[in-house]
Amino acid sequence: MEMRDEVRDHLRESLRDVPVPRGRIDDVFRRVAARQKLTRWRRRIGWVAVAALLLIGITLPLVSLLPLGRQPGATDGATRAGGSGEETLSVGGVQVSMREGWDGRWYYIEGYTRPVIRLATFDLPDADDIEGSGARAMMQEGDVLLGLAEYTSVCPCPGFDPASLPLSLAPEDFEDPYDVWQDLPPQSDAVPPGHDLARRTFETNHRYFDLWIEFGEDPASQQAQEAVTAVLASLQIGDYEEPTQPDGVCRGEYGPSKDPDCPGPIWIKSVLSEAGFQVVDSPQEQTLVGQGDGARFFIWIKEARAPLEEYGYPRYGVVDGMVIYGGEEGLIWRAQGLDVWIAPGPDGTDTIPDRDGVARLVRATMEVSYPPEG
Amino acid sequence: VERHSGFVELYEKAFPAVYRAAFLLSGDGDLAEEATQEAFARALERWGRISGEPWTVGWVMTTALNIVRRARRGRGNTLLSARERIEDERENSIDLWRAIRSLSPRQQEAVTLHYIADLPLHQVAKVMGCENGTAKAHLWRARQQLARHLGVDGDA
User: How far apart are CA A158 and CA A143, in angstroms?
Assistant: First the structure.
């Protein structure tokens, strides 16, 4: 019996004895009805509050919070804003203006085919992960970190509500920020208890986004929320445009097939050729696919970091002294300071090469020099 | 409340699986029931958008798991103590619960969707919002870890 079957059987056997209570569907309907009633009351209270504010003559301060929607002409590409005045970050068809003192950056992050945008009231790091760990480490009390990640490549998705811009923060964005259709980063464990988090997943212009705003305090201050509202009011989302790559910068940690001038994909293609495999088109935007001997597989590289043993994969085999870890669903080995990964290709029936093919690949990764010449 | 077409049927059919998934993660019957009820309530609120999809049950299940995680984050270790008190005679359940707790949230999600909700891999990937290969990787790593914790034999 394969391990997967034993694990599944164990899980199911253990759960079989778990007594399941009787469903109470009336309770479900009651919850929904109660919330609808609450929402109606909130709207009424909101309108009453707005009317009261207008009546006591604070229209002017409110208007001063609305430097909304202005779009100074900005060029696409990495733009760092901050310092004096309002500046615009513009990338991939997304534009957003920042208030004085804010920093804005966009990153290519592993697994994300489109730029991930970050804005903050403090200086952002040069590189970061999808959970914003680097930025979070620099946050102080009262700071704000805003992230905008795009999921268009895997959507339409449930829970991404159609939205018209400009966006503004709403109380429900804070009520259950993890109420999204998937456990999107930053996952609950990543946000420390002392931080407040607002989040919204939305769709606009046929593009799907996860917007999350982390506050360096809990609850978020009114001042911080107003600052975020002002920034969000400037957000514009048009059609996607492939960002221009700065000279010498190769995006992402994968070998991106669309960046033929980068050393990663050049090297991977040479390795595949040396090992007797072909390079085929990939439905993903970033990962190269190799094919041959009945196998079709993704192949990518990352800079070597932790010892391979720490990944916890079983030992698969040894080729010319090189230890390979993993199994039929993926292999990893280390060559020339790089972690080389392969995994079954995009189709559900795809497989990695057989052991002979893997041996050829491993040898090629040792023989083809990295970085490639020229 | 308007009784949306198909919701009652889904509730009756999927309630046990969603409850078991929530129980698997929480080890707490009360929390599992609360999370299950709340997840179905949220599904009802969004019924127009999620009904009729092959991943509807997966959506409800993932939502229930998120609720459990959020509750656990708020409660800290008190849940562990309660669970150990209640279940100290059921060593196997505790082992299983600890093994599940040892997984990352994404691995927990992959395991419950694939093994408890019986979703095929491409639908697991859809619910998780990732590529098939990524879902596969989560599942594979989860199996490795569960096998170690549970002392299950076998090769990958």
Answer: 31
Cβ within 8 Å of A, B 88-147: 92-93, 96, 105-106, 109, 111, 115-116, 121-122, 125-134, 136-137, 139-141, 143-147
pLDDT at A228: 94
**Residue A237, Cα to own-chain centre: how many angstroms?**
17
The 10s digit of each residue's pLDDT in B94-125 is 667 777 777 887 788 888 888 887 788 888 88
Confidence of residue A213 (pLDDT cuts 50, 70, 90): very high
The answer, for A75 touching chain B at a CB cutoff of 8 Å, is no
List pLDDT tens digits, range A144-167: 999 999 888 766 666 677 888 888
Distance separating alpha carbons of residues A112 and B131, to the nearest angstrom: 11
SS3 letters for A206-251? Answer: CEEEEEEEEECCCCCCHHHHHHHHHHHHCCEECCCCCCCCCCCCCC
Cβ-based neighbours of A285, under 8 Å, separated by 6 or more: A113, A153, A256, A257, A258
Least confident among A55-69, A123-137, A225-239: A55-69
Cβ of B129 within 8 Å of Cβ of A182? The answer is yes
Put simply, whether A43 touches B (Cβ < 8 Å) is no
Paired tokens of A234: 């400037």
Question: What confidence score (pLDDT) does residue A272 get?
Answer: 95
Which residues neighbour B48 within 8 Å (Cβ) at sequence distance 6 or greater?
A: B4
Extended beta strands in A166-206, E state: 196-204
| Cα–Cα dist B87/B92, whole Å | 9
Listed by number, the residues of chain B in 18-57 with a beta carbon closer than 8 Å to a beta carbon of chain A are 19-20, 23-24, 29, 33, 37-38, 40-42, 44-46, 49-50, 53, 55
Residue A249 pLDDT class (50, 70, 90 cuts): low
A69: closest CA among A90, A101, A95, A102? A95
SS3 string, A42-102, reads HHHHHHHHHHHHHHCCCHHHHHHCCCCCCCCCCCCCCCCCCCCCCEEEEECCEEEEECCCC
A338-344/A330-335 β-pairing: antiparallel
Q: B132-150 vs B121-128: helix axis angle to the nearest 10? A: 100
β-bridge mates for residue A292, sequence order: A295
A107 CB contacts (<8 Å, ≥6 apart)?
A115, A116, A118, A127, A128
ipTM, two decimals, is: 0.79
Tens digit of each residue's pLDDT (9 = 90 or more) over A318-366: 999 899 998 887 899 999 988 898 888 877 688 899 999 999 999 999 9
- A60 alpha carbon, distance to own chain's centre: 39
Residues contacting residue A301 through CB under 8 Å, at least 6 positions apart: A254, A255, A264, A267, A268, A338, A339, A340, A341
CB A130 within 8 A of CB A278: no
**Per-residue pLDDT, A70:** 24
Q: What is the per-residue pLDDT for A259? A: 57
